[in-house]
Automatic annotation (TrEMBL), chain A:
Pfam families reported in the protein's UniProt record: TRAPP (PF04051)
Domain of life according to the entry: Eukaryota
Protein name as it appears in the record: Trafficking protein particle complex subunit
Gene3D superfamilies linked to this entry: Trafficking protein particle complex subunit 3 (3.30.1380.20)
Role this protein plays: May play a role in vesicular transport from endoplasmic reticulum to Golgi.
SUPFAM superfamilies linked: Ligand-binding domain in the NO signalling and Golgi transport (SSF111126)
Coiled coil: none
Higher taxonomy: Eukaryota, Viridiplantae, Chlorophyta, core chlorophytes, Trebouxiophyceae
UniProt KW Plastid keyword: no
Gene Ontology BP, a term: Golgi vesicle transport
Gene Ontology, cellular component aspect: endoplasmic reticulum; Golgi apparatus; TRAPP complex
UniProtKB/TrEMBL annotation, chain B:
Record localization: Endoplasmic reticulum; Golgi apparatus, cis-Golgi network
InterPro entries: NO_sig/Golgi_transp_ligand-bd, TRAPP-I_su5, TRAPP_component
Descriptive protein name: Trafficking protein particle complex subunit
Keywords: Endoplasmic reticulum, ER-Golgi transport, Golgi apparatus, Transport
Species of origin: Chlorella variabilis
Gene Ontology CC, one term: TRAPPIII protein complex
Family in the record: Belongs to the TRAPP small subunits family. BET3 subfamily.
GO biological process: endoplasmic reticulum to Golgi vesicle-mediated transport
Subunit (UniProt): Part of the multisubunit TRAPP (transport protein particle) complex.
Amino acid sequence: MEMINAEIFTLTYGSMVRQLIADHEDVEEVNAQLDKMGFSIGQRLIDEYLAKSKTQRCSDFRETADRIAKVGFKMFLNTTATVANWNAEGTECSLILEDNPLTDFVELPEQLGALKYSNLLCGVIRGALEMVNMDVECAFVRDVLRGDDVYEIRLKLLSSSTEAYPFKDDD
Amino acid sequence: MFQSRGSVGIVDKPFSRQGKQEVALSSFSYLFGEVVQYCQSRVSNIGELERKLDEVGYGVGLRLLEVLCYRERAQRRETRLLDMLKFVHSTLWKYLFGRQARDLEQSNTAEDEYMISDSDLFVTKYVSVPREMGHFNPAAFVAGVVRGVLEGAGFPARVTAHYVPVKDQARPKTVILMKFQHYSAIMQREQRIPG
């Protein structure tokens, strides 16, 4: 995989968030826009992930979450996450990130306390999983920029369906 | 203007990983693609689109100047124009693209215009420009970075990116054209610097 200096990536993301904040007045709109952009990135990223990692189909949600944390994050962000806090049915879990390359050098001012700076990541995960027929809800519950000590993304599986072929055999 | 909320300010944290951290090129390409799409949705013509990309690059350039001067150049920032150009040509390019830029030359027609040229910038590797968009150059982002670096150092300039076809090469090379403003004032300022 071709690698580039991570700081350009970090600075470009920061510049983009600055543009979004300047263009929209409401912080919630910026959050929604970041999620939407992440969603369309995720829809394309899943192809690259599947091609490069040559994995078989995941057997259940646990394995999915594990693959995202270990393989996915490593491949694209060069950092790993850990999976924790499973609920009883195995449909909800947390991805815990120690360091997040998107937020190097970033400090949130008081006025933007409601900004979910790394919301792009949530959109990416949601978009990628949707393309493999898994509907999930994805949100940050702990964020270093807001004063916590790690980044925690809560991942909730809503529904998953099997592959639907776009054509009928009878025709 | 903005109040800091943390007890440890961002400038007190150590530079832990010293610029060696790497990230996949594809992540940057996805992000850049989204940036271009977002800018496209908010403008009505190519000139504005290039200007928006230039704005995004400008913010990056301003901050890169600080980081690079602190890290690479033993905390000294160049004050002469030619030294600054050499800084952009070697240090900045090496940081961004892993190698020095191909050429640095002064324009024949105007003495306040300089050009840096290079080919195959990774920024535009996965961006293809449809024919309807004519001469749009997504390397306007790189031009914005250079503009941020130059203006941050006190050399205001208009920087633009152009495609120039090259003989024996399939793809055109990208030329970053820098037109310095207040060139005579800059030259006078240099005269006053001792040594």
